[in-house]
Request: fold
Amino acid sequence: MFVKPKYRASTNLPKNVIDYFEKRGIPETILALNRIGYGPSFGETNGIQFPYFKSGQVVNVKHRTHDKQFRQEKDAEKCLYRFDAISQDESKTLIITEGEIDALSVQAAGHTNACSIPDGAPSDDSKSFATKFDFLKSAEEVLSRCNKVIIATDNDGPGLVAERELARRIGVEKCYRVQYPDGCKDANDVLIKHGGAVLYNLITNAEPYPVEGIISPIDLSRDMLSIYEKGFERGVSTGFIDIDPLYTVKPGEMTVVTGIPGSGKSNFVDAIMIGISQLYGWTFGVFSPENWPAERHLQTLLEKLVNRPFAKDGLFTRRMSREDVQKNLVVLDQHFKFIVPKDELLSVDTILEKTRVLIFRYGIQGLVIDPWNELEHLYGKLTETQYISEQLTKIRRFARMNGIHIWIVAHPRNLTKDIDGNYKLPTMYEISGGANWRNKADNGICVHRPDYQNDETENFVQKIRFKEVGKIGMATLRYCRDTGSYS
Reply:
């Protein structure tokens, strides 16, 4: 439950507050329009207060305290600053800034449909943002109405992180970004140093956010400077120290996982998701018809998270308690969303359409399609090989454009045995559809159990497209039959 703050600040601002905003290029008329207040801030001396209005009610208040720090009301609802104003504005263009003063600056320059994110930008080394962008959920209607969203976050590392995540969730195809003049970090800097006309023109002439297939080198200037300083980053850890030297998980890539039936492909991917969710707070979309109903899949995820059996028939390990189930269902709810289309075609297009919703609402960073053969495939006039090529290209492009990692679990078509009667290690070329599975994938892994009486699982990394992600090789994990966990 959100706590609604009592907004008791006076909008009859003292001269020193009016002068402060005047020096920052924001006139008194803008302060009055936005009902900027002045009053007690968390028991301290009086401070400036920025009320957040939603449906005519104050749902949050941002305070600028005497020591020049910004603080918010505890447990208040998170929404865009100026939510009511942008909801009532009929403009098809929306400007999103990183702070309230920047939103007021854009408004002062002449663009009325401006707002700000409530919590500022994440740190520039953030791997996950948990609930930091939950404010977007309430803005879904406004954002769907707009065909142009101009992102005017700060010109620094955290600002770039916020820009990327906002564009990823809203959709890069409708996003634009602002390039500030030298010596200016944000919209208010431009207003102070260059005036309203320059800021107005910068916003008006914002550049389209880079989209795959439509890129000019100058579009990538901020990204290239970041890469220059830090290099290309590795993916995140799988949670297994033996796997990480060979394979890490990088947003924007596609991994194909194969192996003979019963080898543990799904368990392996589930274990990686649990590890990454615990290490980095990632959230995942999961399309896994073989594990339907969802309760069955939840059981396997709970067992990996708690590391105890769910059912009564655990052979050697004490069963998880009822309290374990209740507590950890809350944890799983924060990190997993199941895609279970009811009356729709179970096609690649349907799954990607649902995934776009999950990206916007929950900021998911990973998607699992398990297995490929449970999708409904409409070949039309295409051969199977042509169809596989087309669909994998579509999925890989979706991963890149939306900054998520996609795993596809695909069964091999041809299984052969060695002279001892054991199944040989399958390769990606042996998946139905042939070479396209290897050619189109960024990464390929084969999960193999040569001896079903032995709990050792051999995980062969058969393809790595980019060397910073990993390398080809094999790592052995030990499988626990009671919990479906690996060690």
Q: What stands out?
A: The two ends are 39 Å apart (CA to CA). The CA atoms of residues 127 and 350 lie 28 Å apart.
